[in-house]
Amino acid sequence: MITILGPTASGKTPVAARLAVEIGGEIISADSRQVYRRMDIGTGKDLADYVVTNQETGERKNVTYHLIDIREPGTRYNLFEYQQDFFDAYQDIRSRGAVPILCGGTGLYIEAVLKGYQLSPVPQNQPLRDRLEGLSLSELTQMLMELKAKNGSTMHNTTDVDSCQRAIRAIEIETYNAAHPTPKRELPPVDSLIIGISIDRELRREKITRRLKARLEEGMVDEVKALLDEGIPAEDLIYYGLEYKFVTEYLMGQTSYDEMFTRLEIAIHQFAKRQMTWFRGMERRGFTIHWIDATLPMEEKVREIEKLRD
Fold this sequence. Notes:
Number of strands: 8
Number of helices: 12
Shape: globular
Largest sheet: 6 strands, parallel
Structural class: alpha/beta
Low-confidence stretches: none
Strand content: 5-15%
Radius of gyration: 20 Å
Order of helices and strands: EHEEEEHEHHHHEHHHHHEH
């Protein structure tokens, strides 16, 4: 398997799609929010990236992708489910002689499948949620850190605890795992060549801002409004964080448009920084990541990856 990772706006997906065409691959998404249907602009699905055009002949090829648009908005997809869905897709791709290409920016998902984390499904604990309701994000984060230290756990990171709802879910999982031994599930580690798309911090910031403006122009606010109009509770959209959190708050009249834009822009920059922190942590935990300059021409990036495969 080949894994292509990098922070948001680094251009991972076009590289993965072009590589897939060259080597007969199929892409498995490693994005915690692109699993949801009708959440397209805000999650940056950019499905056009999976159509690769040959520059010489003009021929267009559709790249097969997996684990995108597999859940309804308003549901809570988790790491346990992702591991199983990934492994099903991985086995399916290999059974047909194609090359699995894992591509995304959710570091926890990537590390979980590469290492073969042993996880258990965690039911909702309403009494615990009731007790935690009203606590601040900093209080919840401190509680989570203490639970992690007690359990010796590495299952969560700040990327996934950017709202009170997510922090409460993380505490719920840690509390459950402390009291229940994890059942054995045969999901072995997966050997993979890992490619990182490296992008200069200032260029990344520029691309994030430009892309945010473009997505708002493409109708991101209308997308969130449509989800609210179909009956998805505002708190469920806020739970998804980033675009869905800030645009929902704007639509509910809690912020102005300009304030929404500014706060969201800052949050995405912070998110990208946390992604890079996670990837650097993976290197410290024993993963070898081969970093490729995002500004190289596409042909050179693909050629570098193919050389590393040899």
